[in-house]
């Protein structure tokens, strides 16, 4: 990964997590009844529109339940971080552990999703049977968002709020034309390019996975899982070299 756009391992974290996030989001949209498992705003909108029908079946509370699970995951993460963050042995330790967890979660997501697909467990409407797969996806995307937000470049980066990334990209680009100092213009243009690359990697991941899904369904996630495992090994090696 010595391509020029990957100026550092921290930039790699942002871009590769964005790519993998795009892969997972498009699969959740296709199979999990339009539940974007990394975007709670969309789930809130879907949940509200379902609740106002006053049917009060599982479908009406499905998206609200996703938000509740996300909040529980967030609370558990805060407790874990409070208890164990002081025990990390290098700046890469948290990333290494988080990426390792996501490797196992993505493999579990592929395996369970493929099992449900081959056994025709995906019905026309969401049922309780889909919740184990949803929960695995939610935990994965929570960790993914945590990694990309704390990627180390000190730039506010997130794929859970893509709208803000678009705004930051255009804002920094426009500001670069208003600055008099060449150093400031260059810094702002690099920052705008960073946000563009985050969006581009997300788009590439979603686009390629959506195409592969037509032919190999959940196995479309094999490519991002291989990328994730390879990057996880790299981060572990960085951690061990720093901790030694």
Automatic annotation (TrEMBL):
The keyword Membrane applies. Keywords: Membrane, Transmembrane, Transmembrane helix. It comes from the Bacteria. InterPro entries: DUF1275 (IPR010699). The chain crosses the membrane at residues 12-30, 61-80, 92-118, 130-148, 160-178, 190-212, 218-236. This is DUF1275 domain-containing protein. It comes from Kluyvera genomosp. 2.
């Amino acid at each position: 990964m010595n391509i020029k756009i990957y100026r550092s391992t921290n930039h790699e974290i942002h871009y590769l997590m964005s790519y993998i996030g795009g892969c997972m989001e498009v699969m959740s949209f296709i199979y999990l009844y339009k539940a974007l498992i990394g975007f709670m705003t969309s789930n809130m909108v879907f949940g509200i529109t379902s609740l106002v029908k006053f049917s009060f079946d599982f479908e009406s509370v499905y998206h609200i339940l996703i938000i509740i699970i996300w909040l529980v995951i967030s609370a558990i993460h805060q407790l874990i971080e409070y208890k164990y963050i002081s025990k990390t042995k290098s700046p890469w330790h948290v990333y290494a552990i988080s990426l390792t967890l996501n490797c196992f979660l993505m493999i579990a997501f592929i395996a369970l999703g493929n099992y449900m697909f081959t056994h025709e467990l995906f019905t026309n409407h969401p049922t309780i049977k889909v919740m184990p797969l949803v929960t695995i996806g939610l935990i994965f995307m929570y960790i993914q968002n945590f990694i990309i937000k704390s990627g180390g470049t000190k730039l506010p980066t997130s794929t859970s709020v893509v709208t803000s990334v678009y705004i930051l990209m255009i804002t920094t680009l426009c500001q670069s034309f208003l600055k008099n100092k060449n150093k400031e213009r260059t810094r702002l243009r690099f920052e705008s390019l960073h946000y563009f690359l985050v969006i581009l990697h997300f788009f590439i991941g979603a686009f390629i996975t959506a195409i592969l899904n037509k032919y190999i369904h959940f196995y479309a996630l094999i490519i991002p899982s291989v990328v994730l495992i390879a990057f996880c090994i790299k981060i572990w090696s960085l951690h061990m070299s720093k901790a030694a």
